[in-house]
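Handout, section 4.2: multi-component inputs.
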Amino acid sequence: MSKNLTKRAEDYSKWYNELVVKADLAENSGVRGSMVIKPYGFAIWEKMQAELDRKFKATGHVNAYFPLFIPKSYFSKEASHVDGFAKECAVVTHYRLKNADDGSGIIVDEEARLEEELIVRPTSETIIWDTYRNWIQSYRDLPILINQWANVVRWEMRTRLFLRTAEFLWQEGHTAHATRQEAEEETRMILDLYADFAEGFMAMPVIKGVKTESERFAGALDTYCIEALMQDGKALQAGTSHFLGQNFAKAFDVKYATREGKEEYVWATSWGVSTRLMGALIMTHSDDNGLVLPPKLAPFQVVIVPIYRGEDELEEINIKVSEIKQSLEQAGISVKYDNRDTHKPGWKFNEYELKGVPLRIAIGPRDLKNNSVELARRDTLQKEVVSMDGLIAKVLDELEQIQTNLYKKALDFREANMYPVDSWDEFLEVIEKKGGFAVAHWDGTAETEERIKQETKATIRCIPLKGEKEEGKCIRTGKPSTGRVIFAKAY
RNA sequence: CGGGGUGUAGCGCAGCCCGGUAGCGCGCUGCGUUCGGGACGCAGAGGUCGUGGGUUCGAAUCCCGCCACCCCGACCA
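Output:
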């Protein structure tokens, strides 16, 4: 068993950090709050990217790229936007270094101060809307449906691998529309796209909802989100889609001529998911033995481990495996054959379990004789000896079952940890003891929301879109409420 | 930014209180035996003790400064 991994029950946070490092996903770098994403971790991110990119393009979006640096003045144009991001911006002030006169090393050349400071983008609305102004004159120029894959920097006080790093990778969509309705539809459509991705690919159930005013994106009229529940009972915001109204069009003076020849401001949306999804993926499925990956995101879905004594046996197995590997690959399955002689089978079993490979095939002399292989599932840790005949169909079937099973397990967990609560005591019980989502009535005021946050650290994760109209009383103030919202402690 | 902690071999740590030959485990290299759940034996390699100063005959160890990272808060995707 994996002797070196801290158990979740012992110290969840430590378990997470160790897992990220030991599964070879990422590590801390010499740069404060910034991580190195290692090849295995990056391969998973690339899988996410590929599918998201496909989905964006299938819905009419195209990719483009905007500058990393944003002039400071752009930032101040949209008031609430600057308020939201000012406290966490990295600022470039100089463009040159020089050798210190006293020989003490390299120093910033004070003479090379920039006339206007550049902000390292924490998000790109401002630079993009400044650009869109020149692209849009007429209703014929709309809509603009652009996505950008990029890195952004937010100078967070405290960072954690994948969940909150100073620099992170993401995609940000920025669309421009002629009408409010069209922009709102785009916002909702992207929300659905994100939810489909989370559930269909990451096997991670999410709740679609809308943020309260105080949790809204800086500069948005509405922020929609998908919220997931992690195994420790904390919520994680997995993606957001913002309806920006005409705020940025007004701030950057982006107008278009309507069919009737009238001048109107353009309607905007923006939306994004980040490498934080990696954290979500890890904390949704993984166990005390290590990472558990849904087949749709695994860098390789099947690993084959040979069991042999001596060169001759290995040679025989190599021949058999290359046949199997080829036919698996023809069926669209990604396969790694690890016949390194430098590690023993037991070591490899543990290694690939730690790395979350969905299916493992072990093949030894016994199997060659019996025309069989040993098939082991990562999600259930169950092993079975199966015939080589029909192996491809069996593997395809197992992979599908793993994907489905992971989703179901995560969904069951979430359902079991969603508590409708109707009193303050029940609320505290959920937030402070049980963990999970407390589904409760709220009087709709920012004051009460803030008060609850101060008292319990729980925030309103979202007002669920599926929520039914239901008369009730706010759990904190007893004032009337028209529907339940979701409270939780969050990452 | 406030509180706490840690910097000693690639990794994890001991040594520091009480100054005097720099150590352990894992990993690494070589050879041999092993190989169906993290093998074993033998032989090896590897260190400006974070950094700058001070005290001392002598500093990983004592004193002062600095830097970095980690954890807990406030901030946040």
